[in-house]
């Protein structure tokens, strides 16, 4: 398949449900009062390996043949995808090598190693690491898996959107952090069903805005990234995800690095919930652009919790 269908996401959800605990939807009276919207939180930060990425990795690896698994797997990651792939590979007795940028936070390095990854720290950003991973894979005979290029990994990510619609069918807007676009593209396939589908809003940092510019220009644009938020620190969209985003994503919003840090602190103070920079992006966007959502039922997708201690200390200071 070129990209996942709604049926594929239903199939992925059946698989995911057998291996992963369903993450909760939590209503936030405090954030509702603060923003003027009716705010719900989809807490992927509570999931296996601390990120939504376990869903896609599990689905993608389970869909491989025994021969493909036996080759050994390789991917590139800023942290969460790598940990998820290593964890999923271990479930089926396969090995997984992860190439991560040299500036990857220590907590994500530890998560990948603890999940069983054979870790290579090379590349200045995710794009560099992808190129290196492909080269290493070609030379070593490893199977390269990229979440923005594998339809089953995207289908697994899209199960988040499916659960949102099952738990809150009257949602009017869903805000999702955007890196390469795999996550929001998979969710788009899940939520854009029928006449009453919610608006789907992507969020990026002003320090990593390539996908936002790509959407506005109608073509893939690559740009450097300087954001601290590893989950959205990508230099451009992946083609398969971008195609779906152009069809289904209603808007892209940008937030500042300071707003991301402030949103991390607000989650800790209001709910005792730890989120990383990417996971805080939807709240940062809601507060910055509150007038766009006044009176609406809004879902913020908290994509992950793997935050380094220094940023956490800054956020709660």
CATH topology of the largest domain: Rossmann fold
The total beta strand count reads 10
**Spans where pLDDT lies below 50 across 5 or more residues:** none
Structural Rg: 18 Å
CATH class of the largest domain: Alpha Beta
Question: How far apart are the termini?
Answer: 48 Å
Total helical elements? 14
Q: What is the overall silhouette?
A: globular
* β-sheet strand percentage: 5-15%
Main sheet attributes: strand count, strand direction, barrel closure: 6 strands, mixed
Helical percent range?
40-55%
Q: Structural class given helices, strands, pairing?
A: alpha/beta
Mean pLDDT level: 95
Describe the protein's architecture and organization.
By secondary structure, this protein is α/β, with parallel strands linked by helices. The chain has two domains: about 20-50 and about 155-315, Rossmann fold (3-Layer(aba) Sandwich), CATH 3.40.50.1100; about 55-145, Rossmann fold (3-Layer(aba) Sandwich), CATH 3.40.50.1100. About 50% of the residues lie in helices and about 15% in strands. It has helices at about 5-20, 30-35, 55-60, 65-70, 80-90, 105-115, 125-140, 150-165, 180-190, 210-215, 240-250, 255-270, 275-290, 310-315; strands at about 25, 40-45, 75, 95-100, 120, 145, 175, 200-205, 250-255, 295-300. The strands form two sheets. It has a six-stranded mixed sheet, sandwiched between helices. The chain has a four-stranded parallel sheet with strand order 5-4-3-6, with helices on both faces. Helix 5 (about 80-90) links the parallel strand 3 (about 75) and strand 4 (about 95-100). Helix 1 (about 5-20) packs across helix 8.
């Amino acid at each position: 398949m070129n990209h996942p269908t709604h049926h594929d996401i239903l199939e992925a959800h059946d698989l995911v449900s057998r291996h992963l605990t369903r993450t909760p939807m939590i209503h936030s009276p405090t954030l509702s009062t603060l923003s003027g919207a009716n705010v719900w939180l989809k807490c992927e930060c509570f999931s296996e390996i601390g990120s939504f990425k376990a869903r896609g990795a599990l689905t993608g690896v389970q869909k491989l043949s025994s021969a493909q698994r036996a080759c050994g797997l390789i991917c590139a990651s800023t942290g969460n995808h790598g940990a998820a792939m290593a964890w999923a590979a271990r479930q089926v007795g396969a090995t997984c090598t992860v190439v991560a940028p040299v500036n990857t936070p220590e907590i994500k390095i530890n998560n990948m190693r603890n999940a069983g990854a054979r870790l290579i720290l090379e590349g200045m950003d995710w794009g560099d690491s992808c190129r290196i991973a492909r080269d290493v894979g070609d030379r070593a005979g490893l199977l390269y898996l990229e979440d923005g290029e594998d339809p089953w990994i995207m289908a697994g990510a899209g199960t988040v959107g499916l659960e949102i619609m099952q738990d809150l069918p009257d949602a009017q807007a869903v805000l999702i952090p955007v890196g390469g676009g795999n996550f929001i593209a998979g969710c788009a396939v899940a939520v854009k069903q029928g006449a009453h589908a919610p608006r789907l809003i992507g969020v990026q940092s002003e320090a990593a805005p390539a996908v936002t510019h790509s959407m506005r220009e109608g073509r893939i644009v690559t740009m450097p990234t300087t954001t601290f938020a590893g989950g959205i620190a990508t230099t451009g969209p992946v083609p398969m995800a971008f195609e779906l985003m152009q069809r289904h994503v209603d808007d892209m919003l940008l937030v500042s690095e300071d707003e991301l840090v402030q949103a991390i602190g607000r989650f800790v103070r209001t709910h005792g919930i730890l989120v990383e920079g990417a996971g805080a992006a939807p709240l940062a966007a809601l507060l910055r652009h509150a007038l766009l959502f006044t009176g609406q039922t809004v879902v913020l997708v908290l994509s992950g919790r793997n935050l380094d201690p220094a940023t956490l200390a800054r956020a709660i200071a």
